């Protein structure tokens, strides 16, 4: 009986938008931190961020998630205005309650200190914020006084209870309660107010705006007490977070810096400069115990070093866009992934990015051969990467490439939309125009036969000789062969179909030994294990199936259901006969142990 267990996950990075603050959530027990990407909430271990959990129950993109002060629940708010409150103790994250406090995107939320009440702010159609009880959803007051979207909210943790909200109308609103009601408007900013937080003791709160100002107010009366700087930053402030004792404050800005402030003296303690690129803008931050985290526009999560502000302790890199291509190194120790935003990453322990001038559009497929990474993109180019850096040369292809396969000697065959191309070590040497649209390709390990899948529901075989191709046998298929792969021993050809069919053919006669539709939607990808005993397929149905071509019919498959929940599987690969890697539209890379 085949079984499978999750071994590890290379989790997606946060979704970022230029000019929009990003909210990180911290575990009150100090173990985890939270952020959102697409429809998912990502929970990561702050000491070892390779340990991650992913919550995927929202139907719309999630914007903010926060732990309750008790640590037993997380509240997450999405683009439709829904709040889901779910348990952190059980692996299944059982839903406690779901509410619709406003009719539009929720941008921020905060819990009361007793974990009983929640305030949310955002861009509702009828109102911009609401306060309610976590157990019943009953209203505990109204958020009034704003004329535009609320960007940030916070609860005072001590009595007398207060709420402060920050808005795109350039104002702060101070509320007293419960029940909470409008007390005063603060109009000291000259641009959007992006962030506001009470100090841990509730004595003050500080607001940060797009005008670069960080203003200090009394936590009980909202009287203005001072300003950091001034101004605190040369660009807009997108996030701020107090140290546990409240004596210091971390701020992040579009001026590509983060700063630690002495709150009492209103002076800078440390400044962290991240570079000159647009991607170095800082959009969010978290101060949790000894860990100071910031998030760049690139999505990178930076662990700051207070003893060396010039260099972060650690940078978590990876994808925050759908993964479109994957391959493994020849020693099967390294995973390479590429995404729709043209980035390519190397995953082994801590991930890193392939640098240099690369593709300008989505990467369609990648191969790793003889210490070189060969990639094709929707920019109609073929590129080579040496030592994790793009070479300066690119090879223009005659039509948009769809898939590539490469032999150990560096010979590649590229299936383009209207052509099939042969290249040697990244340089095009032969091109043949097609009468059909190609979508997949595989070279037989013997190096003399090439299979190309077409949108015409056929598999065209070619003879590869002296760097040129000649037409051979045509194999009809029931649907579009979206992906196909020869087994490493050359005995089989496995095909993934757009009509849900998965088929296996036995060579040399290409005898069809089975064709089945156990996937419930289009099958996107297929890959063989190293020993050629099994292959796996990944589908639009968010699941994978492991197939054994030598087993009796109806006993030759194991279904891995919903392994990328709410997202299709885009690529699949083996790093050993018992270890499978899957990538998804959810931007995550997951590694699975398979037991046969």
Describe this structure in words.
One of its GO terms (biological process) is regulation of actin filament polymerization. The protein contains no helices and 56 strands. The N and C termini lie close together (6 Å). It is mainly beta. It is elongated, with a radius of gyration of 27 Å.
Helical residue percent band: under 10%
Kindly provide the radius of gyration, computed on alpha-carbon positions and rounded to a whole number of angstroms. Answer: 27 Å
Q: Tell me the name of the CATH class of the domain at 14-238.
A: Mainly Beta
In spatial order, strands of the major sheet run: 1-56-55-54
Q: Which band does the percent of strand residues land in?
A: over 45%
The CATH homologous superfamily of the domain at 14-238 is termed YVTN repeat-like/Quinoprotein amine dehydrogenase
Total helical segments? 0
């Amino acid at each position: 009986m085949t079984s499978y267990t999750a071994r590890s996950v290379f989790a997606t990075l946060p979704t970022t938008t230029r000019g929009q603050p990003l909210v990180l959530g911290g575990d009150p027990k100090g173990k985890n931190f939270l952020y959102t990407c697409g429809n998912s909430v990502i929970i990561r271990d702050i000491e070892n961020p390779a340990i991650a959990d992913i919550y995927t129950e929202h139907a719309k993109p999630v914007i903010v998630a926060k732990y309750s002060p008790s640590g037993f629940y997380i509240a997450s708010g999405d683009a439709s205005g829904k709040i889901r409150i779910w348990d952190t103790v059980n692996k299944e994250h059982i839903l406690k309650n779901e509410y619709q406090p406003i009719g539009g995107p929720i941008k921020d939320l905060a819990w009361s200190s007793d974990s009983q009440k929640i305030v949310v702010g955002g861009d509702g159609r009828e109102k911009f914020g609401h306060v309610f009880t976590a157990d019943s959803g009953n209203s505990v007051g109204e958020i009034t006084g704003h004329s535009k979207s609320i960007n940030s909210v916070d609860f005072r943790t001590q009595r007398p209870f207060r709420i402060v909200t920050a808005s795109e109308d350039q104002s702060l609103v101070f509320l007293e309660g419960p029940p909470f009601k409008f007390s005063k408007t603060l109009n000291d900013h000259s641009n959007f107010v992006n962030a506001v937080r009470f100090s841990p003791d509730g004595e003050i709160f500080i607001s940060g705006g797009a005008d670069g100002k960080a203003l200090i107010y009394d936590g009980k009366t909202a009287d203005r007490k001072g300003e950091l700087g001034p101004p605190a930053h040369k660009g807009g402030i997108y996030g701020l977070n107090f140290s546990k004792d409240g004596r210091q404050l971390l701020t992040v800005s579009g001026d590509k810096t983060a700063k630690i402030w002495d709150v009492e003296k209103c002076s800078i303690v440390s400044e962290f400069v991240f570079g000159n690129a647009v991607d170095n803008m800082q959009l969010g931050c978290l101060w949790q115990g000894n860990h100071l985290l910031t998030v760049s526009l690139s999505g990178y999560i930076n662990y700051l070093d207070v003893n060396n502000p010039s260099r972060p302790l650690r940078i978590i890199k990876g994808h925050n866009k759908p993964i479109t291509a994957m391959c493994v190194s020849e020693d099967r120790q390294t995973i390479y992934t590429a995404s729709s935003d043209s980035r390519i990453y190397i995953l082994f322990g801590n991930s890193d990015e392939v640098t240099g001038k690369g593709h300008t559009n989505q990467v369609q497929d990648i191969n790793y051969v003889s210490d070189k990474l060969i990639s094709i993109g929707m920019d109609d180019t073929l590129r080579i990467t040496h030592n994790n850096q793009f070479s300066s040369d690119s090879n223009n292809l005659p039509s948009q490439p769809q898939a590539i396969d490469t032999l150990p000697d560096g010979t590649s065959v590229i299936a383009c939309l209207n052509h099939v191309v042969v290249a040697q070590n990244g340089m095009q040497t032969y091109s043949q125009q097609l009468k059909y649209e190609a979508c997949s390709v595989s070279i037989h390990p013997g190096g003399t036969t090439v299979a190309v899948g077409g949108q015409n529901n056929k598999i065209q075989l070619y003879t590869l000789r002296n760097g040129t191709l000649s037409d051979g046998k045509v194999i009809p298929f029931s649907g579009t062969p979206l992906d196909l792969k020869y087994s490493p021993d050359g005995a089989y050809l496995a095909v993934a179909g757009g009509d849900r069919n998965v088929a296996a053919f036995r060579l040399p006669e290409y005898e069809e030994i089975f064709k089945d539709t156990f996937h419930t939607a289009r099958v996107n990808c297929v890959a063989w294990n190293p020993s050629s005993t099994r292959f796996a397929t990944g589908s639009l149905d968010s699941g994978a199936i492991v197939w054994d071509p030598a087993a009796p019919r109806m006993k030759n498959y194991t279904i891995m259901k919903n392994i990328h929940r709410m997202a299709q599987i885009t690529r699949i690969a083996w790093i050993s006969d018992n270890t499978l890697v899957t990538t998804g539209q959810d931007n995550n890379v997951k590694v699975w142990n398979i037991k046969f």
